[in-house]
Each structure stands twice: as C-alpha cells, then as structure tokens.
C-alpha cells in the first residue's frame, strides 16, 4: 500500500495539474482508510499507520503545490489576455460565461486580465482555464495563439494571390449557378426521400461523403476558375449552427462532370474555413468571394483572341516579333529609287 503513495513534483504548469489531481487522490484514499478503520478492528494498527503515512504525503504534496503557486505569482502574463480572448471567440463564449464555469465572481477575470491591471490570475485559475479549453497551460502563458502557423500563413498567402489575380483579371471565375442536380456525385448527394411536393432533395456531400465536411448547405452560386494548378471551385456554405464559411476545391476528375458520375471522387479539398478555429481564413475568403462577385460580369476574351487583337492594334510590334523589318510609316521622297 505504501508503495502506491507518491508525491508528484512540479516543474511546469502541466505538472501543477497532475499534482493537484494527486492531492485529490490522496485525500480520497485517506477518507477510504478512515472508513475501513471504523469497520475493521483487527486491522486497526495497520490502518492507522497507513493513514499517518498518507497524511504526511498529503501535507508534503500540499507544500509543493503552494510553493509552486507562490513562485509563479509573477509569471509573464503578456500572452494570457489575448490568448483568452482568442479562445473565447473560438468557442463562442463570453468572458462572463467563463467566470461562471470557473465559479468566480462576475468581473473577476475581466478585471484581472485587463492589460492595465497590475494583478494576475492565480496559477490555480490559469490551470482551470487550460482544462476548460483543453489547451496546454504552458502554451496558454507562453505562445501567442493569434500568430498563425506556417501552414495557415501559406493558405492565407494563397488566398491573397487568388484575390490579386482575380482583381487583375489574370484569372476569371465562372458562375456555375446553384442547381444541385448538376453536381450530384461531385458536391451533392441525392436523398432517397423526396419533399412533400415530390421534388428531389439533395445533401451537401463532396465526393459523395457528407462526413468529410462540417458544412451542410450551399448559400450562394458555385464559382469555378481555370488556374495554373487546375480548375478550382469556390463554394459559399454554412454549417449546422448557421455560421457562414467557404470551401475551395481543385477538380481532378473528368472533363464533363455531371450526374452520371455518382461514384467519382474527383475533388481535392484545398481549404475549408470551418476547420480554422482562429477564424483568420474566413476574412480572407470573404475578400476573395467579394472580388469574385465584383468581377463576375467582366468582359472576358480568350488568350488567343487577345493575341490576335494585339497583333492587329500593334502591327509594328507584331512584325518585329515575327522577325520582319519594321517599315517606317513614311518614306523620304528624295530616295534615288523613287
């Protein structure tokens, strides 16, 4: 029994949580032994010895916990306020909701984490916050959650370039409409049950699988564009909570997609804003989608047509490019061969 009694050392905030749980476990064991002591007279000496030993361990664990709390009283809180704000936004909570979950008085957390406040939340409260949001407590204190990862930065740069090329008419997006029956097996799946009026019903299911996306409903027309990496499809959607977002796909399948390809898996998901808890991508996609809609009616001609028109409007440049002599617009009348 004594071999199971351990005191957990604390070297980090993560250890602090483990030590608190160990403290709670020791308390429960002591209560259990005290109950056994009341029911079993024959084991009294052994039980009493075990209780004393555990109480000593409990006191030692308590000192370690309190010592860590005192040592961390002046922890660096420069990231805590912004990280807390970021976590609340991700989970759709208000700071008053968090205070209720923590069991502290209204306004306690908001006043304490205020950048102008000289006070700090206790380590105990910080650990509880990390447990509520299921984040590493050391990360909560030492990493800026609002700084995007490299992968997120790359996707942001990707959307910025798409918007730039859309604004510059380097790429043009085609409005494909919103007829779901045209994209069965690609973006939608036909349901077995029809509507009350007998109309066919469809479910958003990229590649035929609804489980691969958090989106449930199309909210605007589907747009596609030919790019250097292939044909892209941009969809404006909403999830089951009515939150708007976007998904961008590269089409890798057959040239003539349609309802006859129900078993195809011809889409590569490039990005879904519903997967970004920081909500950073949503803003970039909003900008891109607005640009797509703005340039939807732009007059567009093919590259070959552009080349022909340019040759006609700029014959001198065209001849020079073709290797012909660039003849001047007028010839001197005094030349001997006139």
Task: Write a concise synopsis of the structure shown.
By secondary structure, the chain is α+β, with helices and mostly antiparallel strands. It contains eleven helices and eight strands. Helix 1 packs antiparallel against helix 2, helix 8 runs parallel beside helix 9 and helix 10 packs across helix 11.
Shape: elongated
The class by helix and strand makeup works out as alpha+beta
The main sheet comes to: 6 strands, antiparallel
Residue share in β-strands: 5-15%
How many structural domains? 3
- Count of DSSP strands: 8
* Helix-strand topology string: HHHHHHHHEEEEEEEEHHH
Total helical elements: 11
Q: C-alpha Rg, in Å? A: 34 Å
On the 0 to 100 scale, the average pLDDT is 82
How far the N terminus sits from the C terminus, by CA atoms, comes to 121 Å
Word description of this protein:
With 338 residues, the protein is of the alpha+beta class. It has 3 domains: 2-71; 80-142, 434 Repressor (Amino-terminal Domain) (Orthogonal Bundle), CATH 1.10.260.40; 150-294, no CATH class. 44% of the residues lie in helices and 12% in strands. It is built from 11 helices and 8 strands. Strands 1, 4, 5, 6, 7 and 8 form a 6-stranded antiparallel sheet that branches. Strands 2-3 form a two-stranded antiparallel sheet. The radius of gyration is 34 Å and the shape is elongated. The N and C termini lie far apart (121 Å).
């Amino acid at each position: 029994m004594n071999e199971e009694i351990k005191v957990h050392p604390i070297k980090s905030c993560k250890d602090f949580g483990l030590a608190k749980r160990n403290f709670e476990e020791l308390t429960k064991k002591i209560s259990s032994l005290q109950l056994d002591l009341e029911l079993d007279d024959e084991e009294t000496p052994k039980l009493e010895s075990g209780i004393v030993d555990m109480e000593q361990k409990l006191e030692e664990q308590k000192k370690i916990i309190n010592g860590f709390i005192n040592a961390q009283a002046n922890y660096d809180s420069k990231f805590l306020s912004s990280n807390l704000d970021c976590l609340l936004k991700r989970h759709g909570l208000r700071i008053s909701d968090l205070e209720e979950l923590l069991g502290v008085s209204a306004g306690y957390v908001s006043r304490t984490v205020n950048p102008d406040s000289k006070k700090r939340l206790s380590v105990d409260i910080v650990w509880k916050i990390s447990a509520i949001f299921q984040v590493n407590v050391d990360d909560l204190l030492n990493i800026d959650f609002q700084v995007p990862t490299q992968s997120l930065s790359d996707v942001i740069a990707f959307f910025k370039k798409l918007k730039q090329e859309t604004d510059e008419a380097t790429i043009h997006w085609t409005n494909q409409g919103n007829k779901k029956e045209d994209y069965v097996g690609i973006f939608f799946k036909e349901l077995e049950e029809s509507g009350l009026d007998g109309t066919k019903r469809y479910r958003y299911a990229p590649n035929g699988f609804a489980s691969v996306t958090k989106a449930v409903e199309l909210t605007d027309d589907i747009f596609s564009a030919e790019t250097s990496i292939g044909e892209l499809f941009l969809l404006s959607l909403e999830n089951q909570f009515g939150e708007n977002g976007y998904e961008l796909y590269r089409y890798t399948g057959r040239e003539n997609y349609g309802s006859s390809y129900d078993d195809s898996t011809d889409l590569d998901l490039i990005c879904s804003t519903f997967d970004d808890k920081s909500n950073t991508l949503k803003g970039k996609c909003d900008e891109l989608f607005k640009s797509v809609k703005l340039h939807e009616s732009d007059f567009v001609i093919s590259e070959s047509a552009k080349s022909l028109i340019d040759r006609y409007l700029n014959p001198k440049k065209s001849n020079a490019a073709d290797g012909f002599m660039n003849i001047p617009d007028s010839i001197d009348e005094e030349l001997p061969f006139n």
